[in-house]
Amino acid sequence: MKKLEIVIRPEQLDDLKEILNENNANGLMITSIMGYGSQMGVKKVYRGVTYNATLLPKMKVETVIADEVVDGVIDKVIDRIRTGNIGDGKIFMYDVADVIRIRTGERGESAV
């Protein structure tokens, strides 16, 4: 099993949820975050005054999926989420040693 942490622009959350639902990634944790990377923020104008917004809004979606589908999910996310501009986001992938469902005590993929 793999854990994916996918950081994207907020306006692309619905597309990402659709991709994950198509691939039976039915347990999602979604967090609203702020951050910056290569983009280093953007210049904005508010009431005629220009200022630098260094922390930009992002969404972090976390899910655990089977090893067999992880490459397909990543390819679909890259194809459908990418705009080609700085700030499109990142995908972090981690190995998951075990999962335990607290309610039943189930372990492994059946607990996901």
Tell me about this structure.
This protein is α+β, with helices and mostly antiparallel strands and 112 residues long. 22% of the residues lie in helices and 37% in strands. It has 2 helices and 6 strands. Strand 3 (42-46) and strand 4 (49-53) form a beta hairpin. Helix 1 (13-22) packs antiparallel against helix 2. The protein is elongated, with a radius of gyration of 17 Å.
Distance between the termini: 10 Å
Low-confidence stretches: none
Shape: elongated
Helix/strand-derived category reads: alpha+beta
Please report the number of helical segments: 2
Mean pLDDT: 88
Give the biggest sheet. 4 strands, antiparallel
As a percent range, the share of helical residues equals 10-25%
Strand content is 35-45%
